Amino acid sequence: MESVIRLENFYFAYNKSELVLQDIDLEIKKGSFTVVAGPSGAGKTTLCKAMTGIVPFYMGGRYSGDVQVLGESTKGRRVSDIAMRVGLMLEDYESQLVSLTAGEEVAFSLLNHGFAPEEVAERTRKALEDVGLPGRESYQLDELSGGQRQRLLLAATLAVHPEIIVLDEPVSAMDPDGAHSLYELLYAIHQRYGTTIIVVEHRVDYLLPYVTDMVVLKEGQLVTADTFAAAARTMYEDEELRPLVPALWQVKLGVERRFGITLGEWRTEAEAAAELQLLGFEGGNA
């Protein structure tokens, strides 16, 4: 399958710091819904910034190797040019909001990229509609809830029509209902437009119904970059990484190990219950 992002022998250290990423070789598949996982301090956020050119070309630092986005090296390219094709939402989403009203927020990035006023208006309308905020152009930002402001930032990202969207722990400040709602929205966008989605998330349970691939980091090094099923098995074998495996898959892989069987690729509790019942498991016992 065609890749949209490729890192080759990539090393990076911030100024006056030790290496944050070491010898990273990986590819992100076009049209995938990829989750980046790993313990705190593993280098996940830095990896996201490298995929968008912010590291090292905006923030500085020491690096070697190469990052290619949609077939082009990020070397010598402006971050604003990369942003036309790769949208980025950071964990501190409030810091990315710059305008007074919802309409101005979405229009801001479009105007910076030189879109004509009539196209700005139409793209703004459609982007707000896509994220469930139709007709909110005149709303002040302080009239929107935290979840709505996150959706607004996503609308501003979508309006440029990026081929890739990178999100760094976008639901860290949300309750479970808000997290499920945002990820359902992201998946709908992924399905509707074929957008490649890359999400840093330590609570992979939220993404179990949607994830296709996983990138797993540990202490700045790549543990695995594979399909979700293969990556989950690799993580399960590592005692430090096992707690990051979705709870449902911890059960699945534990049952497989104990009874020497192979179970289906569960995505919901209903799927798991149905298969276990079919195999004669009741109340957790065979």
Mean pLDDT equals 93
Number of domains: 2
How would the global form be characterised? globular
Helical stretch count?
A: 10
What's the total number of strands?
Answer: 10
The side-by-side strand order for the widest beta sheet comes to 6-7-8-3-9-10
Q: Can you tell me the CATH architecture of the largest domain?
A: 3-Layer(aba) Sandwich
CATH topology (level 3) name of the largest domain: Rossmann fold
User: Biggest sheet, open or closed, and with what strands and sense?
Assistant: 6 strands, mixed
Q: What string, H for helix and E for strand, traces the elements in order?
A: EEEHHEEHEHHHEHEEEHHH
Question: Which characteristics define this entry?
Answer:
single chain; 286 residues; alpha/beta; Rossmann fold; 2 domains; 6-stranded mixed beta sheet; 4-stranded antiparallel beta sheet; 37% helix; globular
Write the layout of secondary structure elements.
Elements: E1 3-13, E2 21-29, E3 33-37, H1 44-51, H2 54-57, E4 62-69, E5 72-73, H3 79-83, E6 86-89, H4 102-112, H5 117-130, H6 146-158, E7 164-168, H7 176-193, E8 196-200, E9 213-218, E10 221-227, H8 228-236, H9 247-259, H10 269-278
Parallel strand pairs: 3-8, 3-9, 6-7, 7-8
Antiparallel strand pairs: 1-2, 1-4, 4-5, 9-10
What does this molecule look like?
This protein has 286 residues and is of the alpha/beta class. It folds into two domains: 236 residues, P-loop containing nucleotide triphosphate hydrolases (Rossmann fold); 35 residues, no CATH class. Helix content is 37%, strand content 22%. It has a six-stranded mixed β-sheet, sandwiched between helices. A four-stranded antiparallel β-sheet has the order 2-1-4-5, with helices on one face. Helix 7 links the parallel strand 7 and strand 8. Helix 4 packs across helix 5, helix 4 packs parallel to helix 6 and helix 5 crosses helix 6. The mean pLDDT is 93.
